[in-house]
Amino acid sequence: xxxxxxSGGGLVQAGESLRISCAASGSGATFTTMxxxxxxxxxxxxxxxxxxxxxxxxxxxxxxxxxxxxxxxTKATVDxxxxxxxxxxxxxxxxxxxxxxxxxxxQGTQVTVSx
Length: 115
Prior knowledge:
The chain is mainly β. Helix content is about 0%, strand content about 55%. The protein has no helices and eleven strands. Strands 2, 4, 5, 6, 9, 10 and 11 form a seven-stranded mixed sheet that branches.
């Protein structure tokens, strides 16, 4: 059974950087897509950044130029390097992976950016 485990969340000040990581276990094949979504307080879950199996990347407009996603298929990991963090980046960040016909979610890691 596939499990996604996030790590690295925390509390930072505006302008600082943070890196969050996700490791998948129980996967028997390379995921089609891996990435990150987030859910700010009182809002819907939204895409942050995803990487396709051919390394095609998609970023939310709000994080372009500040966030970078890294995927390692050999380790089944996906990291998100977040620079120049803003208070509006405060959210629970969820790791995501799919095989195209089935998707998986981590339990989430809290990122809080203080002003």
